[in-house]
Amino acid sequence: MTKTTYKIMPPSMLNASIALPSSKSISNRALIINALAGARFMPENLSDCDDTEVVVKALTNRPPVIDVKAAGTAMRFMTAYLAVTQGEHVITGTKRMQHRPIGVLVDALRKLGADIDYEGKQGFPPLRIKGKALPGGRLVIPGDVSSQYTSALMMIGPVLQNGLELHLAGNIVSRPYIDLTLYMMKQYGADADWTGGDTITIRPQNYTSRPYVIENDWTSASYWYEMMALYDNHEDTLVLNGLADGSKQGDSAVKYIYSLLGIKTAFENVESEHPTAVTLAHRMGRVQRLDFDFVNCPDLAQTVVTSCCALDIPFHFTGLSSLKIKETDRIEALKTELRKLGYLIRSENDSELIWEHGRCDPSFEPIDTYEDHRMAMAFAPLAIRFPGLQINNPQVVSKSYPKFWDDLKLAGFKIESL
């Protein structure tokens, strides 16, 4: 792939109306559940991102070898789906994907009766899966690994012969994503619920195929919240379309976090579960320091870290253990790239990030993205404070927000390809 670098120049003020992409998280769950329901209807307003595209292709074409590229969600969800669906497939991905652990999910599926073998290194993709009807039963898995493992197992629960009783041991991370999965399963007719603080019970009862409309993405909204926070002009307003106040998306927490950073959120439609236009504006005052536990919304961490540095707000962020097994080691990537802009942040316990105004001489080298879409999108707004900021391999945004750069141009940013 030819290396590309973007140079970003910000507009003098921020006034725009942005049509956000549809939710990748909801799209991928809807596709798997819909397929298990018989796929009489195709979900509407599907995300056009890379991650969703690989799921659509896999479910439509069902090739012998399924390449999910860099899509971690697709790897986990499709592994569980293929285990309960007739046929033999190999599922693989990029080099980075082949270094992202999947042993917890494979072990759990094997305990349910699945026929899965590793094609290479034990505990990692690629996998060979021979799909068949599975008995199901009771499972215990760690609650502090990726919630995508939990969601993958939950979604196949209704089609298991004896259903599924899933016990999550220890601390449970990203619980809103688990609740989102449960909510969507119920919308498709599943008999499933929490039956204790750490146990989900799913009874054997087939899904019912139905029309389904995907709402837009709160995680993508976070980059616009960051941009708004970095502008000092209190006359600026920004409209983000297609968001619901009562969304089950865990990253809707962004509206609370950025209220602490001086941004007010106003919904045009007050019916909580109906997507509507959201207007962002400045409010008086910001916190002097921010301490926050990201255990329920880890995908917001990069955006909030870069925002706080640029706003000179010291922080102590916890609940970040899953960042080390994302598209890259996001904890180390943040430390390395912020140093280029003169910020010295430190990590503790592989799950915490801390900044106490630590500074160094900036090099202003181009920001590297590590094949991680969220690195590109979290750093791009920093051009507001560092005009001419350069970002390497900006095309990685296609993983979740393919039109990100087009939307920046729509908002008045000038982007030059070097």
UniProtKB/TrEMBL annotation:
Function: Catalyzes the transfer of the enolpyruvyl moiety of phosphoenolpyruvate (PEP) to the 5-hydroxyl of shikimate-3-phosphate (S3P) to produce enolpyruvyl shikimate-3-phosphate and inorganic phosphate.
EC numbers for this chain: 2.5.1.19
Binding positions for 3-phosphoshikimate per the UniProt entry: K24, S25, R29, S146, S147, Q148, S174, D299, K326
Complex formation: Monomer.
Compartments where located: Cytoplasm
Record-given protein name: 3-phosphoshikimate 1-carboxyvinyltransferase
One GO CC term, this protein: cytoplasm
Pathway: Metabolic intermediate biosynthesis; chorismate biosynthesis; chorismate from D-erythrose 4-phosphate and phosphoenolpyruvate: step 6/7
Catalytic activity: 3-phosphoshikimate + phosphoenolpyruvate = 5-O-(1-carboxyvinyl)-3-phosphoshikimate + phosphate
Database matches in InterPro entries: Enolpyruvate_Tfrase_dom (IPR001986), Enolpyruvate_Tfrase_sf (IPR036968), EPSP_synthase (IPR006264), EPSP_synthase_CS (IPR023193), RNA3'P_cycl/enolpyr_Trfase_a/b (IPR013792)
Binding site residues for phosphoenolpyruvate: K24, G72, R100, Q148, R330, R374, K399
GO molecular function terms attached to this record: 3-phosphoshikimate 1-carboxyvinyltransferase activity
One Pfam family this sequence matches: EPSP_synthase
Keywords tagged on the record: Amino-acid biosynthesis, Aromatic amino acid biosynthesis, Cytoplasm, Transferase
The organism of origin for this protein: Hallella bergensis DSM 17361
CDD domains, alphabetized: EPSP_synthase (cd01556)
Active site: D299 (proton acceptor)
Residue span, Enolpyruvate transferase domain: 10-408
Organism placement in taxonomy: Bacteria, Pseudomonadati, Bacteroidota, Bacteroidia, Bacteroidales
Gene: aroA
Family stated for the protein in its record: Belongs to the EPSP synthase family.
Xref: Gene3D superfamilies: Enolpyruvate transferase domain
The organism's place on the tree of life at top rank: Bacteria
